[in-house]
TrEMBL record:
Matching SUPFAM superfamilies: NAD(P)-binding Rossmann-fold domains
The name this protein goes by in its record: SDR family oxidoreductase
InterPro entries: NAD(P)-bd_dom_sf (IPR036291), SDR (IPR050259), SDR_fam (IPR002347)
One Pfam family recorded for the sequence: adh_short
Coiled-coil features, chain-numbered ranges: none
Gene3D superfamilies linked: NAD(P)-binding Rossmann-like Domain
Protein family according to the UniProt entry: Belongs to the short-chain dehydrogenases/reductases (SDR) family.
Organism: Leptospira yanagawae
Amino acid sequence: MNGKFALVTGASRGIGLSVSKVLLELGYIVYGVCRNPNQCEFQNPSFHLIECDLSNPKQIQKLIDSFPNQDKLHVIVNNAGFAKFGPIEELSPEKMIDMVHVNLLAPMLITNGFTRILKQNEGHIFFIGSVSGNHLSPWGNVYGSLKAGLHHFSRLLFDELRKYSVKVHLLIPDITKTDFYKDLNIEPDTDINSFLLPEQIATVVKQILMDQSGMIVPEIHVSPQLLKLKRKKYLK
């Protein structure tokens, strides 16, 4: 074990869980943040899930204040996010507020809370963005706007922290096969060349962390070979 700690949000499933497994392979002690730790079946002696609702700023502050062995924190992966798509007038104010908190405010608060430690440790901060933040998406105006904000925050943070040897990385995945699409009316196509897997995103994180050349990758866009989505079929 390298004695270093990592914090991963949305760590109980999908990209967050895959990234957590890669960090464990590299010898990190991983603290994963999620709403429902009991729903995660993966277990490892160095993998610890912390219950926290990232839509609640007070719970985020509690997470920051109580995080164990803060002086050993070297990696933060801001991965958690969710989307509600639809015409703007059909989105409830409550869901819009939750999206703002989880997709944008939470990464900002977590970064704010731990940056001094990462400066001391010359650590890494990862942001998992979305292609929705770069392109127009029908009925995805709120989610896309928040991801665009996250992208810009990461880019500005890179310039701010590079002089302190803190490495800031923005990963922008295209269509990835996770349960992100569970409540949406679209989903990845069945063609295996039309979607990414969470493990592939985690591999990018692994490659960045293993690189010792002094070269920094501030932003990387990861896409499948083909662009295909399909509408879900609902039985009446």
